[in-house]
Amino acid sequence: MAMPVVATETPSRTPGGAAVLEKAPERVRQPQRRYKVLLHNDPVNTMEYVVSTLRQVVPSLSEQDAIAVMLEAHNTGVGLVIVCDIEPAEFYCESLKAKGLSSTIEPDE
User: What digits encode the pLDDT tens for the residues 37-77?
Assistant: First the structure.
């Protein structure tokens, strides 16, 4: 199946009949800002609960990744869960909070 051709230039005619191609302005997409989802130290829930909750909320985390995030939060006070676009970051943060874990998001620099 042939792909349709999309013109980026628009022909117009001069008074003498010659075709002139006018270049359409190009749109440059700015890269979307990324956000860090942070897990804060949790003195209430067990380490096992934190790891299993991380894996439920963020399915892309392996068991080892979830353990590393939990240990980072336990040892330093805050652990980096994931860096992603704003909408999934908000979803992950709110989902962690709904399961009793302390989480925030901040822009990735």
Answer: 999 998 899 999 999 999 999 999 999 999 999 999 999 99
Plot region of 88 (φ>0 → left; ψ -120 to 50 → alpha; else → beta): alpha
Residue 57 token pair: 């909320």
Q: To the nearest 10°, the Cα dihedral for 106, 61, 47, 104? A: 10
CATH of 35-107, one of 3.30.1390.10, 3.40.50.261, 3.40.50.720, 3.40.50.2000: 3.30.1390.10
Q: Tell me the whole-structure pTM to 2 decimals.
A: 0.71
